[in-house]
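re the bet — no i am not wrong, look at it urself. input seq straight from the record:
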Amino acid sequence: MRRQVLLGAGLFILCQALILFARLLPLWTGHIGRPGPDLALCLLFVWLLRRPDQLAAPMIAGLFLLEDVLLLRPPGLWAAIVLIGSEFARSRENRWRDQPFMIEWLRVSILMGVMMLGYRMVQFLFLLPVPAFGNVLLQYISTVGFYPLVVLAARWLIGLRRISPAEAEMMRYSR
């Protein structure tokens, strides 16, 4: 059981590192017309709602702090918001587990929207540079649109599946 958790956490870190590496590559030399989806955020929620035992809060904070630093965002701001959002989702994972996928998609979409809105509000409050609202809205729409594709990719490429009620009970008693 412990080995499976460590392997899952390692695989999550590897996937996040690959996503970050792809974001840092200079694929376009000219002006980028519209922002792409935040695949790291999608993967986080996909993994967290399927295998919450494999993702520790310090690991999530560390990965997103590294992303903040490498993408030249205010250090720690997005990482803190992602950590708050992920812990909110983790605390409700047992209630969301038996719901259909469309309900999960709706809940994650609302949570992502609140997180992006909170990030923008803190930027306004502390007089940080704020990206255009249209770009933020396009990124939100593309992130929400890509969520089902990330779920499918995680299921078919990685084999990530929801934990069963028996596994959840076993996790609860092993803590």
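see?? The chain is about 75% helix and 0% strand. told u. also The helical segments are 2-24, 39-50, 57-70, 77-96, 101-125, 133-158, 165-174. so pay up
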